[in-house]
Amino acid sequence: MNPYALLAAGILSELVGTTALKLSDGFSKPLPTLGVLVGYGLAFYLVSLTLEELPLGLVYGTWAALGIVGVTAIGIVAFGEQLDPAGAVGVALIVAGVYCINVVSEMSVH
């Protein structure tokens, strides 16, 4: 399977796990707690498969950065969190970093 598709699925699984973590209320709610375990477990499994074909720095940088961007978006949309101008600049820099690692750098597999 395409390693970038596996990485995308891993990132989505992490986003599910992180959102469930917010909803679990300190692991006091069983269904969201199960979502945390399944989401993170699947995320780590999929990322481990990705690492069979792609460099560690590229995978982890992309996973972490897109996880931050995704969780920020979920926080804004689902939980009414605010993003101030400094936060928006930070998110833009994260996106720029992922672009550099995946497109500009020779780290990536082209």
Structural class: mainly alpha
Please tally the helical runs, counting DSSP H or I stretches of 4 or more residues: 4
Distance between the termini: 16 Å
* Morphology call: flat
* Element string (H = helix, E = strand): HHHH
The oligomerization state is: single chain
Mean pLDDT value:
94
Residue runs with pLDDT of under 50 for 5 or more positions: none
> What's the Cα radius of gyration?
15 Å
Question: What about the largest sheet?
Answer: none
Explain the overall architecture.
The protein has 110 residues and is mainly α. The protein has one domain (3-104). The protein is built from 4 helices and no strands. The longest helix is centred in the middle third of the chain and has 24 residues, at 56-79. The model has no long low-confidence stretch (mean pLDDT 94).
SSE layout and pairing:
Blueprint: H1 3-23, H2 30-50, H3 56-79, H4 85-104
Helix pairs in contact: 1-2, 1-3, 3-4
List keywords for this structure.
110 residues; mainly alpha; 4 helices
